[in-house]
Amino acid sequence: MGKSEKQPAGPFPTTRLRRLRYHPAVRRLVQETRLDPAQMILPLFVRSGRNVRLPINSMPGHFQLSPDQLTAEIQEVQELGLGGILLFGIPDTKDATGSDSYSDQGIVQQAIAEAKKASPELLVITDVCFCEYTDHGHCGVINDRTGRVDVDNDATLELIANQALSHARAGADMVAPSGMMDGMVGAIRTRLDAAGYAHLPIMSYAAKYASAFYGPFREAAESTPQFGDRRSYQMDPAADPQQALREVELDLAEGADIIMVKPALAYLDIIRTVRDHFPGVPVAAYNVSGEFSMVKAAAQRGWIDERAVALESLLALRRAGASILLTYWAKQAAGWLA
Q1: Active site includes 208?
Q2: Is 116 tagged catalytic?
Q3: CATH number of the domain that 196 lies in?
Q4: Helix axis angle, 330-337 relative to 70-80, nearest 10°?
Q5: Residue 36: what are its φ and ψ, rounded to 5°?
Q6: HSE (CB half, 13 Å, CA atoms) of 251?
Q7: Residues 6+ apart with CB under 8 A from 168
């Protein structure tokens, strides 16, 4: 055999892959997937009032907070070295168009101001949608003129742009449109640029599925649809992954800076597909409420080790290709990793 020819792998026991697992220091040395609190974003739910800290029953350890309660939360986020927060608002009054969402005195706008007062350097991301703000619980303006009740995509775009601009004026560092309206990223990018916010990045919920894993979130955000469901605008879990790639490609063309896949654990294949097809584009994964609450419930019954399962789940998201993790475990995970 010539020297230039490839040598075959040695037979057992010359080749023993367990050698790289035998010593903890060696295992750490050869690890390729790592978790860092700076990669994690903590979702927070804010409602009107003062000294409000209402437990979310289906999401142990999480609360609906009044804006004045954000200071202590933000201090903890900073001490743990988390990457930032994602704000959701629950208004006092809901209406057909979700007007509180684009009011400069709206609940999220108040929360942004409080967050920035507590920590000017904290990364504050805002969810841009309507389901928490509308009296019908859907993600936009309802159109029943055709005889089929559905969200009016194009009528909603104007309001989405208004909402994003209002968040920018309040001091948000990034906006995250989640309604799955066609053209939403372009509408927001055009409005922000025209108003002098060309620097503000957009993290688009580009591949967001109509998932059963959102149940606890709907309690937390008080956003359950009053009729029907969201399958006419959120993606079908049974759709070909190529549809997710089309959604991502369109959002990038419209000006998205970061792409999100939601949910996360049941869609690891989508995260990997997006990562492989769009190298260099930051990919976020939203580890959603149902994924969180199932582990919490099983751990409370002693069926699983919460810490081990949570960290393994987050590692799976990183291994699949996510560089940003939106997770309700953010604070706990940061403590475990310290």
Answers
A1: yes
A2: no
A3: 3.20.20.70
A4: 30
A5: -135, 130
A6: 33
A7: 175, 192, 195, 197, 200
Q: Which tens digits make up the pLDDT trace of 245-304? A: 999 999 999 999 999 999 999 999 999 999 999 999 999 999 999 999 999 999 999 999
Which listed residue (94, 116, 208, 331) is catalytic? 208
d(CA 289, CA 220): 9
CA–CA gap between residue 196 and residue 199 (Å, rounded): 8
Q: Identify the domain containing residue 62 by its residue range.
A: 35-337
In the three-class reduction of DSSP (H, G, I as helix; E, B as strand; rest coil), residue 55 is classed as strand
pLDDT, one tens digit per residue, over 61-95 is: 999 999 999 999 999 999 999 999 999 999 999 99
Query: How many Cα neighbours within 13 Å face the side chain of 97?
Result: 11
Contact between 41 and 325 (Cβ < 8 Å): yes
> Distance between CA atoms of 148 and 59, rounded to whole angstroms?
35
Residue type at position 320? A
Which of the residues 94, 262, 296, 331 is marked catalytic? 262
CA distance 203 to 175: 6
Task: Determine, yes or no, domain membership for 8.
Answer: no
At residue 147, does pLDDT exceed 70?
no
Residue 305 lies inside a defined structural domain of this protein: yes
CA distance 45 to 63: 7
Structure tokens, 97: 């168009």
330 exposed, middle or buried (CB, 10 Å; 0-12, 13-18, 19+)? buried
Query: Residue 111 has which token pair?
Result: 């929360």
The pTM of the whole model exceeds 0.85: yes
Cα 199–chain centre separation:
21
Question: Is the residue at 20 inside a domain?
Answer: no
